[in-house]
């Protein structure tokens, strides 16, 4: 979710009702689950996300939300004889750091599952390390289709690379085309300038958007790649202005998208910038300023005001006293952690109340079979490890905040 979610309860989560099993409240004793008196065996859930740097707003929301799931599981003694802990490591949105963190998780024999990362490129770097150790990975935010369906996913051959990898967020194979359909059919935009940051997430998202927009009959006014580390996009802004485009689509994340939008408007192109879940953050509003008003973003899930279960999650998050907001992926991170907790429960109960010697492999297998009502709705995975929940929402930046415009699923 975004930081504004804590203030006015407008953020994104997918539809569904939450049972006390999945989200729950703290028990009457006030125990927050952080102690070790709830069980005789400790299970660690590894958490990888950017906890520092430009994307730390999203990463800290992921960490806190997974931590909340662990605390509530302990508070209710959800798995008899087991106490859960979080081991949180910072990847700084760098694939090399994510890979190193994966090795650290593998080395800690108490780690039976991992939540994260945020970035698809980081997820890519971690997959094999974790898979070789039969250590399950559940990302709340990775959206690149290749992570679950292989590099040739768009060429007619879908093949799951790693059976230990799952995600609770839907993919860019859905998100990009969903944005294209909204812009062409609803917003009546016919001429788009497409920009991406050349990263796994950004380039992939821009590619699926572009293909669908052209399929619908839209025109591509121009394409450009940028280096997100530089904040001077004046040359690209000039190209956008002279292209005659009536909208810009950006594949990338908010640290570059905000300044890009501001500079495009200042160059004289008074047209909206549209992006995916990577820009759907309160940080984008700060970075794009007044020039960003009217910009659009798609993100996974449905608006929180439609979900009683999500409201309960927000209340529990506030009650826990975390300093940072849960941002876009808070609910998905909670559900990712809870899918591991559910898997541990199934494995322990099938083994006379104890962890088996091959617990990692058993937990990874059990995650693929989970089926529960979570913060984000029904949590289950298909044969590729992708979430079965495909809900998306378009948001518009107006009145100093993101406001939901349209929710639904991709039209075939």
TrEMBL record:
Organism: Streptomyces microflavus
Domain of life where this protein originates: Bacteria
Taxonomic classification: Bacteria, Bacillati, Actinomycetota, Actinomycetes, Kitasatosporales
Record-given protein name: Branched chain amino acid ABC transporter substrate-binding protein
Record-linked PANTHER family: AMINO ACID BINDING PROTEIN, LEU/ILE/VAL-BINDING ABC TRANSPORTER SUBUNIT
InterPro entries the UniProt entry points to: Leu-bd (IPR028081), Peripla_BP_I (IPR028082)
Gene3D superfamilies according to UniProt: 3.40.50.2300
UniProt record similarity statement: Belongs to the leucine-binding protein family.
CDD domains: PBP1_ABC_LIVBP-like
Residues annotated as signal peptide: 1-22
Pfam families: Peripla_BP_6 (PF13458)
């Amino acid at each position: 979710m975004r930081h504004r979610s804590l203030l006015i309860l407008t953020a994104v989560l997918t539809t569904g009702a939450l049972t006390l099993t999945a989200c729950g409240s703290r028990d009457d004793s006030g125990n927050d689950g952080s102690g070790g008196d709830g069980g005789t065996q400790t299970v660690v859930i590894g958490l990888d996300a950017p906890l520092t740097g430009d994307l730390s707003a999203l990463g800290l929301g992921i960490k806190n939300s997974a931590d909340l799931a662990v605390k509530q599981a302990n508070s209710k003694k959800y798995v008899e004889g087991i106490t859960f802990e979080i081991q949180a490591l910072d990847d700084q949105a760098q694939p090399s750091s994510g890979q190193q963190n994966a090795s650290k998780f593998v080395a800690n024999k108490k780690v039976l599952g991992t939540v994260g990362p945020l970035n698809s490129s980081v997820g890519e770097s971690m997959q094999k390390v974790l898979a070789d150790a039969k250590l399950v990975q559940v990302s709340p935010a990775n959206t690149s289709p290749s992570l679950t369906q292989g590099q040739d996913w768009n060429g007619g051959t879908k093949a799951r690379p790693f059976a230990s990898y799952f995600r609770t967020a839907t993919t860019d194979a859905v998100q990009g085309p969903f944005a294209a359909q909204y812009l062409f059919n609803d917003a009546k935009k016919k001429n788009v300038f497409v920009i991406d940051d050349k990263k796994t997430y950004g380039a992939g998202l821009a590619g699926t958007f572009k293909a669908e927009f052209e399929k619908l009959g839209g025109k591509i006014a121009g394409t450009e790649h940028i280096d997100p580390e530089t904040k001077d996009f004046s040359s690209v802004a000039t190209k956008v202005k002279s292209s005659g485009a009536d909208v810009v689509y950006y594949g990338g994340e908010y640290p570059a998208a905000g300044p890009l939008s501001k500079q495009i408007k200042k160059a004289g192109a008074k047209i909206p910038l549209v992006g995916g879940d990577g820009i759907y953050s309160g940080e984008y509003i700060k970075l794009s300023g007044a020039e960003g008003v009217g910009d659009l973003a798609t993100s996974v899930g449905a608006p929180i005001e439609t979900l009683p279960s999500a409201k309960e999650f927000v209340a529990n998050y506030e009650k826990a006293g975390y300093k940072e907001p849960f941002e876009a992926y808070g609910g998905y991170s909670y559900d990712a952690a809870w899918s591991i907790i559910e898997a541990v429960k199934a494995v322990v109960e099938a083994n006379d109340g104890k962890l088996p010697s091959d617990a990692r492999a058993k937990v990874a297998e059990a995650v693929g079979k989970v089926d529960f009502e979570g913060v984000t709705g029904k949590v289950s995975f298909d044969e590729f490890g992708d979430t079965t929940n495909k809900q998306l929402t378009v948001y518009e930046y107006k009145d100093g905040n993101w406001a939901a415009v349209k929710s639904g699923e991709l039209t075939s």
